[in-house]
Amino acid sequence: MQQVERAIFDLRRGLPVVVGEDADGAGSSVMVYPVESIADTNLAEVLETAGSSPALTLTRHRMEAMGLGLNTDAASLPLKGGDGLSAESLYCAAAAVKGGRSDLFEEPRPASLAERAALALMRRALLVPAALTARIDGSRQAAVERAVEEGRILRVPARLAERCFESGVGMLRRVSEADVPLSQSVRSRFVLFREPDGLREHVAVLIGDANEWSREVPVRIHSSCLTGDLFGSLRCDCGEQLQNAVQAIAELGGGVLLYLAQEGRGIGLANKLRAYELQDAGLDTVEADRVLGFGDDNRRYRVAVDILADLSIDRVRLLTNNPSKVRALSEGGVEVAAREGLYGRVTPQNRRYLKAKASRSGHLLDEVLGK
Ligand SMILES: Nc1nc2c(ncn2[C@@H]2O[C@H](COP(=O)(O)OP(=O)(O)OP(=O)(O)O)[C@@H](O)[C@H]2O)c(=O)[nH]1
Ligand SMILES: [Zn+2]
Predict the structure, then answer these.
(1) Contact at 8 Å (CB) between 59 and 111?
(2) Whose CA is nearest to atom 8 of ligand 1?
(3) Which of 11, 73, 194, 314 has CA 20 to 30 A from 114's CA?
């Protein structure tokens, strides 16, 4: 997987990578550029390097947002070229609320294996899930091969890249820990876990004395929210939920708060801010993520299951309003003996967000929003 991790870093830096369809990554290969960082000059470079016409590869959700239904998980829109084609027009087609100019593209076709893998890499890299892709023409293969051998560009096998979200299952590493007294619970210990690819770190906050925890350990699974947790943003309820969770767990005799690196429901802070802009243009929190090409909720809770296993916890009292967290733990073999609601204050700024969570994602919020 090392190549895949390196490719993710390159893509985050705005560099292209080569995705190949054979097991060793060679064979039918595609150059991949992250759309969000492509500059006008790169467009000429893509044509020159790959020697074939590029396409814009998008997720099904983005295609739907553009009114281009195609019954596949991902599709590619071959570029027509000509006037109006620029880095900006590509970005608009990939992420703007209005979907960009359709006259710049040919009819969509289902994405190839390498193109689908390119989108998986974008999502893992927390970029806008849109790639400029170009098959490497036979006439350019030798040059690309040389660039790969000389380390000027990375090549990854599509099959590995496509599975970049699964690479770490069951392989979290417990890295370091220390006591960190909190104002609401003086006896608290932070334990840090790192995913094997080194890309994400998660923290388990052990509250109180583990020997005194009840058999149904009070557990909160909290997805990180820089704006809410640290700055008290009024757009969401995360900051207050975080504080209330520590308080509630302490009052229940201690337990665990899992602070998971899942900013913006797993789409990352950059995309969350993009989604906020789309919300300010009228979309709700779920629609905005879809328009950016994501699903309704991009979080997977496997890391929570793995951390609880490491802590030898198999029965919990879960503090959440989110039924998918309950489901994910149960499916992962953790018994959810009870669920308890956990709320922040409803404010004029977050009411619409909370209502959308209740109506679109099934959050159990009647207690604070009314029926
Ligand atoms: N994409 C996106 N993410 C958001 C938005 N507002 C808040 N978030 C993120 O949503 C997540 C909320 O996490 P949690 O509070 O753990 O989960 P939850 O699904 O609300 O469920 P609860 O357990 O009931 O709180 C955080 O990662 C926030 O950064 C938004 O408008 N768009
Ligand atoms: Zn938040």
Answers:
(1) no
(2) 264
(3) 194
User: Are 208 and 251 a contacting pair, CB within 8 Å?
Assistant: no
Which residue carries 């299952």 as its tokens? 169
Q: Does residue 299 line the site of ligand 1, with CB under 6 A?
A: no
- The full set of domains in the chain, from first to last, is 1-163 (3.90.870.10), 173-262+299-361 (3.40.50.10990)
Whole-number Å distance between alpha carbons of 132 and 249: 47
Quick: pLDDT tens for 163-193. 888 766 678 999 999 999 999 999 999 999 9
Q: Tell me the per-residue pLDDT of 266-315, one tens digit each, with 9 for 90 and over.
A: 999 999 999 999 999 999 999 999 999 998 888 999 999 999 999 999 99
Strand 155-157 and strand 17-20: pairing? parallel
Please, which residues have CB less than 5 A from ligand 2, an ion?
A: 225, 228, 236, 238
**Residue range 220-259, pLDDT digits in tens:** 999 999 999 999 999 999 999 999 999 999 999 999 999 9
pTM of the model: 0.93
Taken in order 275, 277, 279, 283, the sign of the CA dihedral is negative
Name the residue of 238, 316, 359 to mutate for ligand 1: max ligand atoms within 8 A of Cβ: 238
Residue type, 15: L
Distance between CA atoms of 318 and 310, rounded to whole angstroms? 17
Distances (CA, A) of 18 to 83, 88, 174, 212, 357: 27, 23, 33, 54, 39
Q: Catalytic residue numbers? A: 297, 299
Q: Measured between alpha carbons, how far is 18 from 50 in angstroms, rounded to an integer?
A: 10
The CA distance from 331 to 328, in Å, is: 5
